[in-house]
Input
Amino acid sequence: MSDDDHATATLAGGCFWCLEAPFEELAGVHAVTSGYCGGDVADPSYEAVCSGETGHAEAVQIEYAPSIIGYDDLLEVFFALHDPTTKDRQGPDVGSQYRSAIFYHDAEQRATAEAVMERLSDAYDDPIVTELEPLETFYSAEAHHQNYYENNPERAYCQVQIRPKLQKVREQFADRVAGE
Output
């Protein structure tokens, strides 16, 4: 893979586990890392972020090949995986660390995000409250938070919260799911 065919997207939409597993299903996605960004505390821990006092959101950083899947495609999946009209809440997870946010890496990503949000705005009864901000620093979450669904598929949270999102991606975006 050349440098021209490598890009990074950073998205927050609730619990990072709920985004990590579905994005890993997509063709062209090489890696998904769970972590934290958008706050003002260096090298935060999961416990600190969960306190809601760091300003960080739980987020995923997606390494992908733009020749296979576009940034706009990733954003369409992102908006399908969470409710972008609820502020600081996704399902059972409540707090600013669970906010909906797009952390753009450059002006092109910002413009694409604005266009996608504008295009999708009529699909929702309430206004989209997804924050759009430049990525400053992304901190990887602790090792036991990486590949969480893959390592813990039978846990209740995985079955109730993540499995339906995986099924949604497999059905709604079947043309974008990687082959086995």
